[in-house]
Specification:
Keywords: Membrane, Transmembrane, Transmembrane helix. The chain has one domain. The chain has helices at about 1-30, 35-60, 60-95, 105-110. The chain is an all-alpha fold. It has 4 helices and no strands.
Length: about 120
Amino acid sequence: MNEILDVAALVLILIGALLCLTAAIGVLRFRDVPSRLHAATKPQVLGLMLICLAIALSLRSWPVVAFLVPIVLIQLATAPLSAHMVGRQAYRNGTIDETGLHVDELAESKRTPPAAGG
């Protein structure tokens, strides 16, 4: 049984590392900000989760699991938040192609200045 868990941990680490690698390549290769944000968050978070699962399977210890769960939860909380903030700032700077947006919820706030009160 230990050998099966070790092989499963190795496979999970390999898949997680490949997902993190594809996230890094996507950040470098994609042209627009939304595509880069998608590449930076989705596969990277899944890759980290798979690597944490592999560590838990490999070490087979409840204190390790208790240490890894907050890491995964913090990553799940901060990755979408940081992507949202980067995307919003890119929108404000005008570096996003607005013709490619399906829904533009910030168009009204862009027309009125923040200090205008409207």
